[in-house]
Amino acid sequence: MSKTKKNILRPHAETAYAHELKALKKADDRERPTNWNLSPWAVVTYLMGGKLKDGTEIETKYFGNRRLIEIAVSTLVTDRALLLIGIPGTAKTWVSEHLAAAISGDSTLLVQGSAGMSEDALRYGWNYAKLLAEGPSESAIVASPVMTAMRDGKIARVEELTRIPSDVQDTLITVLSEKTLPVPELNHEVQAQRGFNVIATANDRDKGVNELSSALRRRFNTVVLPLPDKLEEEVKIVQHRVAKLGQSLQLPAEAVPVKEIKRLVTIFRELRSGRTEDGSEKLKSPGSTLSTAEAISVINSGQALAAHFGNGKLQAKDLASGLTGAIVKDPVQDAAVWKEYLETVVKERKGWKDLYDSCSELL
């Protein structure tokens, strides 16, 4: 492997887990839909983890309800597109990427939704040098990821669908219902090959959300990815992802005690739900989402502080700045909520004085 490839910060799923996909393909003796690299059973195994007959361990990619992943994969076998919905940090993008990698062997056919996006990002654009020299022609078309997926019978991914302006969203209606993409300039159309489908992600918590039209929503089967039900489950997810990200960021995984992860996840869960874990006390909630993804980010930030400016082991003082930044998005309302939580909950908890002192210094 070249030095450049070894130094890639975040390899695509089909590259990072190539050995697992290869082993699954070899062991997979079930029926595969046209242009699928794996059978639906093998795709679910790739996401949920397991052990193959040859001894290959398949790492768990999604810690959650297996049935949700089975429904998602079954949807992609049909002519319905898949919409993954959940608050930020519920692994929508992560699941989308791994589904595309397992099914098509290519997770890169991605459209990132934004408020300023035009129809070209979902349909096609033009190479203007060729357009001026030759006029409209197939060679002058710059295919979007959606058009490429249709031609090749692969999965296209559309991130943050509800951030895209409503009139641009509806560009997908013809693609999803008729499985064609008209090119009126050439009196031509691109017809989807078997295996083509779309995985979109969306959340309804952020500002700037554009509601889906009923016509577009009917083209999707919606799967809601929830936050983890139990504290232990969320701690396990954070611990797993911190270890994986720490490798790519060259941060020592052993520098993160499980105790600190558990404290952080407990704080996030209590502030999200508006009550303490034992249900004994009601709490005010800040405006921030405090997702699992944000917990992972806080730990990574603390890891970096501990590794480069501390004793190498994550401590309360390393956790405090990232924790405060994640909770206090509004300097007035969120700061008041956080200060009250520190005084009424953190200060009173046995063994949490170091965290209380470190966080209080930053307020």
Topology, element by element:
Blueprint: H1 3-6, H2 13-16, H3 18-27, H4 40-48, E1 50-51, E2 57-58, H5 66-77, E3 81-85, H6 92-104, E4 110-112, E5 124-126, H7 128-134, E6 141-143, H8 145-152, E7 155-159, H9 166-169, H10 172-178, E8 180-183, E9 188-191, E10 197-202, H11 214-217, E11 220-224, H12 231-248, H13 258-273, H14 292-309, H15 316-327, H16 333-346, H17 353-360
Parallel strand pairs: 3-10, 3-11, 4-7, 7-10
Antiparallel strand pairs: 1-2, 5-6, 8-9
Helix pairs in contact: 4-5, 4-6, 12-13, 12-14, 14-15, 15-17, 16-17
Quick description:
The chain is built from 17 helices and 11 strands.
Features:
single chain; about 375 residues; alpha/beta; two-stranded antiparallel sheet; 11 strands
